[in-house]
Amino acid sequence: MLARIDVRGTSGDLREVLARPVAAGPDVSVAVARIIADVRSRGAAAVRELTKRLDGVEIADTRVDAARMDAALERISPSLRAALELARDQIVAWHEAQQEREAHHARLGVEVTELVVPVDRVGCYVPGGRAPLASSALMTALPARVAGVPEVVLCSPPDSDGRIHDAILAAAAIAQVDEVHAIGGAQAIAALAFGAGELRPVDVVVGPGNAYVVEAKRQVFGTVGIDGLAGASEVVVVADDTVEPEWVAVDLLAQAEHGPGGAVAVIVWDEAVAERVELALDTLLLSAERRDEAASTLDAGGRVILVDDAGRAVDAANAIAPEHLELMCADADLLVPLVRNAGAVFVGAFAPAVIGDYVAGTNHVLPTGGTARFASALRIADFQKHIHVVRADAAALSRVGPAARAIAEAEGLWAHADAVRLRSELSS
Questions:
Q1: Where do the domains of the chain lie?
Q2: Is pLDDT of 232 > 90?
Q3: For residue range 238-269, what is the model confidence (pLDDT) as tens digits?
Q4: Per-residue model confidence as pLDDT tens digits over 295-326
Q5: In a 3-state reduction of DSSP, which class is residue 376?
């Protein structure tokens, strides 16, 4: 079930040997481009037709009114509501801690400050096909609220009856989302970017999704901002014989049950650990509720990676750049400073990635597909603009102006140089 890759005795960069295939092929790119072009040119009519053709659902009005959100909040169980509210409080607390101090710089008489301004309108995409990810509603909408965004819109796919799952609607109510629309897939991303009927365009689109959603975000970037390319779920577990094999196995299964396109790996320096984990995984899979989804992920994207030692295990993890990295081994804290590429790191046997998915407070919208080499978890800065503010008086211009003129003249930009020269002449 898990492919075995042995890199023991090797040195140097492991990225090539551990590389994964590109997630979106040309067929996905072309199909998404057609969907975006259709929504851009025909708006709501295209959204309705695409929803009927792709999702098999006829829907006259995509917008879900606030009363239906409130009703969903009342319909869910008290335990689920309490859990969502606990998650909300954790998420808000962590993202409030990300608030930046105002930057300030004063040198040679030139004063520079910074305005941190939220964007006006954000679109959150919440997957709802294979699993109704109510947690993603919290993870996307709440940081936008903390950032000060005035208008937060949420799109999620409708079910066969044209409705959004109650758990997602309840989470949207808890996060105080302004608008909810029953639209899924690439057409939702296009509608958020370009508008569709009552759904006005947004400034930033965030949230995870399948290959079509990720490709749509890639293609609309530039028209709107995006948080990153958060696709199918991934986990890498670094494990040794100090941890229960079943714990490693269930964490692999937890990410695999999201379904096709994902990737799971366990990195070990003891073959006996690998064998015990594989045996435990086989046993758990027999009774797994989402056995088909998990098995498809494990067969296509499951790996056991054999390395020489714990340090080389982190090298392998850095080469993969996973969404989730679990360090389930002795002296796990000592390995944390070695981590360079990961969306989130979970340290020790009692910190599974699942708590990051729901209640740690950290964001579960994380870079996937190796993009953790350059991208980060969703954070409040993704919803904000940083505007530089510069102040200078005549004395300050006299100090720094000659350098500005010299650079401008070297570049052949004579009006740039004159912008300093004329002021200097008038103030002298």
A1: 26-109+127-226, 232-373, 392-427
A2: no
A3: 999 999 999 999 999 999 998 878 899 999 99
A4: 989 998 999 999 999 999 999 999 999 999 99
A5: coil
Angle at which helix 245-256 crosses helix 291-301, to 10 degrees, equals 100
CA Rg, the chain, in Å? 25
Which CATH number does 232-373 carry?
Answer: 3.40.50.1980
Catalytic residues: 323-324
Which of the two residues, 25 and 324, has the higher pLDDT score?
Answer: 324
Q: At residue 50, does pLDDT exceed 80? A: yes
Domain 26-109+127-226 shares a fold with domain 232-373: yes
Residue type, 111: E
CATH class of this structure's domain 26-109+127-226? alpha beta
Quote the CA–CA distance of 73 and 133 in Å, as a whole number. Answer: 15
Q: Is the CB of residue 186 less than 8 Å from the CB of residue 215?
A: yes
- Strand order of the sheet with strand 324-328? 3-6, 302-306, 263-268, 234-239, 324-328, 344-347
Q: Residue 364 half-sphere exposure, CB side, CA atoms within 13 Å? A: 28
Q: Give the residues across from 11 on adjacent strands.
A: none
Give DSSP secondary structure letters for 292-318: HHHHHHHHHHEEEEE-SSHHHHHHHHH
| Maximum alpha-carbon separation in the chain | 85
Q: How far is 163 from 138, CA to CA, in rounded Å? A: 19
